[in-house]
Write a structure and sequence with these properties.
The protein has seven helices and eleven strands. It has 275 residues and is of the alpha+beta class. It binds a DNA duplex (16 and 16 nucleotides) through loops.
Length: 275
DNA sequence: CGGACAACCTGGCGGC
DNA sequence: TGCCGCCAGGTTGTCC
């Protein structure tokens, strides 16, 4: 659920409360939430490290400490927020990792389904691995996208979900980008025309940018660090709209499964490219 | 290399 | 009202 716009919103919301702070201690009640290192070592290493910056790479949150970096992936139900030590937040029934700050506030990691992971590493590359380009970076130009997709042949839906192809898209924004560019999720990358690629590139940037402006889509679990919902869920065109009329042509939106993922599209105006 | 699929988890919901 | 069973999806890992 938390995809690039949601993670970006979380990062922006954490910058102010974490600025200038130092982590003094860490506690964890579910060892599985810690990717690396294990609990005792993690706690010993992180204590005393100051926060230098809060950044995002794909769907990863990078809290750069000194000398290590805290890397958090929210997966489906993860939440990250800063509250006073004594605060009782509604998400606290799922809090598994708590970082004590030096100002009587805490950074809490809540995760109902326990899929999310928190890592502490010297070099972020240890965790990030082979991530694709950032779709909203200036360096990610139409030409760069054209060159990248020219080397692929598979179906568009799984391709756009592949984080080594492009970092940050998830099930919601992939479906939205394909609808916006009028491309069928089962179309193959090697059948796209030059114009198809141009529209897809523009659609990816557009849906992600709008998602950020709306502070993310709170389809179910996602919340901003202040606990409130984003508003991108109100303007989705296909995701979660099976059976409802297409906003463009009124034909009912269809839901199929592609690569084990629920996939929403308009069978009337999202065409499969010839070939 | 790519496609298929299980595993990781549990809240929420539909069905009865 | 209560219980059962299934679905949701990001990523990794395994198998063919």
């Amino acid at each position: 659920m938390p995809e690039l716009p949601e993670v970006e919103t979380v990062v922006r919301g954490l910058r102010a409360p974490l600025a200038g702070r130092t982590i003094t201690a860490m506690t964890c009640d579910w060892p599985g939430s810690l990717a690396t290192p294990d609990g005792p070592l993690f706690a010993a290493l992180v204590a005393g490290q100051p926060v230098r910056s809060v950044d995002r790479r794909g769907k990863y949150i990078l809290i750069r400490l000194d000398p290590d970096t805290l890397i958090i992936h929210l997966k489906m139900t993860g939440r990250l927020y800063v509250v006073p030590d004594a605060a009782q937040d509604h998400a606290d029934r799922w809090v598994h990792v708590t970082f004590q700050l030096d100002n009587a506030y805490q950074l809490r990691f809540s995760d109902a389904r326990k899929f999310g992971r928190v890592a502490l590493v010297r070099d972020p590359a240890e965790v990030l691995g082979d991530l694709g380009p950032e779709p909203l970076d200036d360096a990610f130009t139409l030409d760069a996208f054209r060159e990248r997709i020219a080397r692929r042949a598979g179906q568009l839906k799984p391709l756009l979900l592949n984080q080594t192809f492009l970092a940050g898209m998830g099930n919601i924004y992939v479906d939205e980008a394909l609808w916006t560019s009028r491309l069928h999720p089962l179309s193959r990358a090697d059948t796209l025309s030059g114009d198809d690629v141009t529209r897809l590139y523009a659609a990816i940037r557009q849906v992600l940018s709008e998602g950020i402006v709306r502070e993310g889509a709170s389809v179910n679990w996602y919340r901003k660090p202040d606990g409130t919902k984003g508003s991108a869920q109100y303007t989705l065109s296909v995701y979660g709209r099976a059976g409802q009329p297409c906003r463009r042509c009124r034909h009912p939106i269809e839901r199929i499964v592609v690569g084990q993922r629920g996939t929403h599209f308009c069978p009337a105006c999202q065409t499969r490219s010839p070939g």
